[in-house]
Amino acid sequence: MSWKKAPVLLPALFLLLAQWATAEPLALEAVPKIQAVALHGNDHTRLFGATGEGLYVSKDGGLHWQLAYPFRLPATMVAEAPDGTLWAFVAGKGLLKMQGDALLWTPVSNGFGAQVLTSLSVSKKDPQEMAALTQFGKLFKSSDGGKHWHKLELEGKRLGEAARRGKALYAEKCQSCHGTEGVGESYSVQSFREKGYIMAPPLDDSAHAWHHTDEALVKTILEGTSRPSRMPAWRTQGMDEQQAGDLVAYIKSLWGKRALECQGPKHMQCMQPDSR
Ligand code: HEC
């Protein structure tokens, strides 16, 4: 968000917060469908629910509910860690945590691209160690309390020389839009609100970068895409075929076996929904 917009947004946010604080609790049958639930703290009547229209809390064991976080964005996960910290995932805001009893959420990270977390577990022995699962069944791990996440399937993977060069180039020129390890651009409040906002797609195998041949990927990188968007035509920025090839080698190191075997036109025969 640019600071120019802040004066317009602040009163709106204030109104929203005021409304949030005074809203009447909803009876259970009026609450949007709950997809995840967590009891919190020592009080077993305090229950949190993640719904497609926001994060809710009940203070009477689940009979009545109110918003626990002031944004009505899809909440996909809520879980209590052994140390009593409450964790939640809200699309557009990312991973949030709440310590103590006040409904104050701290943003921890928003770097999962087009994926949302559906399940999370925190080590009892060392709360810095965490594991999480996305809606696509991808496992992620963090060793720093949720600030940075790493795809489990890439752990220990060795990169060839071209992919190593591509990795450095990717970090410098592509990651700001396409995300760490190619997860894609993360939802933001701007991406929800701005009409026609085109997200930078994942380049790992969670979307369809792998439906394109190497040549087609090189071409997109150098020439840009057919519609006007933020994706630059990198040739105009001085990039050559070899660098684009290195980038493709790195991008392909982010793909699993199925995507590699089914790359390009072959992907049509490989589209079994439950295969990975
Ligand atoms: C400023 C943001 C931004 C940057 C930086 C950026 N991209 Fe993109 N990229 C996009 C957007 C937005 C799209 C989607 C365009 C569309 O759909 O028309 C895209 C699309 C693509 C696609 C097509 C994917 C598909 O599935 O068809 C490829 C490949 C790609 N980018 C590679 C790269 C590479 C490699 C870099 C770094 C050299 C890069 N991009 C840097 C925003 C960006």
* CATH-level-4 superfamily name of the largest domain: YVTN repeat-like/Quinoprotein amine dehydrogenase
Distance between the termini: 37 Å
CATH topology grouping of the largest domain: Methylamine Dehydrogenase, Chain H
Q: Identify the overall geometry.
A: elongated
Number of strands: 13
The figure for the number of domains is 2
Measured on Cα atoms, how large is the radius of gyration?
21 Å
Q: Percent range for helical residues?
A: 10-25%
Known CATH architecture of the largest domain: 7 Propeller
Quick one: CATH class of the largest domain? Mainly Beta
DSSP helix count? Answer: 7
Helix-strand topology string = HEEEEEEEEEEEEEHHHHHH
Bound molecules: heme C
Task: State the secondary-structure class.
Answer: alpha+beta
Report on the biggest sheet: 5 strands, antiparallel
Instruction: Work out the strand percent.
Output: 15-25%
The average pLDDT score comes to: 89
Any key phrases for this structure?
single chain, alpha+beta, Cytochrome Bc1 Complex, Chain D, domain 2, 2 domains, 5-stranded antiparallel beta sheet, 4-stranded antiparallel beta sheet, 7 helices, 23% strand, disordered N terminus, binds heme C
Question: In short, what is this structure?
Answer:
The chain is of the alpha+beta class and 276 residues long.
Explain what the structure shows.
The chain is of the alpha+beta class and 276 residues long. It has two domains: 12-154, Methylamine Dehydrogenase, Chain H (7 Propeller); 161-270, Cytochrome c-like domain (Cytochrome Bc1 Complex, Chain D, domain 2). Helices cover 24% and strands 23% of the residues. It is built from seven helices and 13 strands. The chain has helices spanning 6-22, 161-173, 175-178, 189-193, 214-223, 241-253, 257-261; strands at residues 26-27, 34-40, 43-51, 54-58, 64-67, 75-80, 86-90, 94-98, 106-109, 117-122, 130-134, 139-142, 150-151. A five-stranded antiparallel sheet has the order 1-5-4-3-2, with no helix packed on it. A four-stranded antiparallel sheet has the order 6-7-8-9, with no helix packed on it. Strand 7 and strand 8 (94-98) form a beta hairpin. The longest helix has 17 residues, at 6-22. The radius of gyration is 21 Å and the shape is elongated. Residues 1-8 have low confidence and may be disordered. Bound molecules: heme C (HEC). Heme C is lined by residues 173-174, 176-178, 198, 200-201, 203, 208-209, 217, 220-221, 225, 227, 229-231, 234, 247.
